[in-house]
Amino acid sequence: MDAHVDDRDDGDRYRAPALDKGLDILELLAEQKGGLTRAEITKLLGRNASEMYRMLERLVARQYVVRSAGGDRYSLSLKLYALAHRHPPMERLISEAMPLMQRFAAQAEQSCHLAVYDRGNLLVIAQVDGPGTWGIAVRLGSRVGLIDTGSGRVMLAFQTAEQRTQMLAEHTAVKGEVTIDHTALEAACERIRTAGFSQKDSQQIFGVTDLTFPLLGSSGQAIAALTCPFLKRIDEYVAPSLDETIALLRDIVQTMSMFREPSAYDESAAHTSP
């Protein structure tokens, strides 16, 4: 018997119509920038209107799909993006990043941490302390603000406008988060995109300058943000300067990008677009 016939038989034998409908909707919405109405989804998929209604309601309830403010259009949420970051490729990213982060910490004599987007804010997935007596570090596993941190603003800056809107819609303020209006935030993101990184005084701790670079996928979207909370020495010890630290951090991010295999991480970043 022909092997291709066997493959088709197996595909028919194990069909799950309800699952197929849900996957069809997700795949269709993944290709749309502005979302689709229920009527448009029904027409494009050639499905029955009532079954599309039930499926969309379940996808919304499970937060894979979101409605527009007017309630008439549907688009993908970032839940698939967040789930993808729990996948083994993220473990590979961490394993490749850690030696480079340790090298940076030793050379710059500063700490650093790597964060990814997760459910409306940033999640710290790797952290390395500086070698000196003094330092500041963000605890591994911490959730940091999307709006008022270097990590969050860099992650926002290097996304498409549509995905930035979704990220902000999913955002919930963390403890002590400093608010900022939309116009000012967009202006900050534009400055970061122009500079290629973020340099800003910390809005959490006095005397710290946050330096953040994006780790970009092949589409130009940030899949992670590497931050150094820079502390300036004021005694007689001569440590690497702010400019030297920026150069070291830039080199580390560029090296991480060369080591990273785009196919391993960019699939999740493609759902999102200092």
TrEMBL record:
PROSITE patterns: HTH_ICLR, ICLR_ED
Coiled-coil residues: none
Residue ranges of every copy of the IclR-ED domain listed in the record: 79-262
GO MF assignments: DNA binding; DNA-binding transcription factor activity
Keywords tagged on the record: DNA-binding, Transcription, Transcription regulation
Source organism, top-level taxon: Bacteria
Protein name: Transcriptional regulator KdgR
Species annotation: Paraburkholderia humisilvae
Record carries keyword Cell membrane: no
GO biological process: negative regulation of DNA-templated transcription
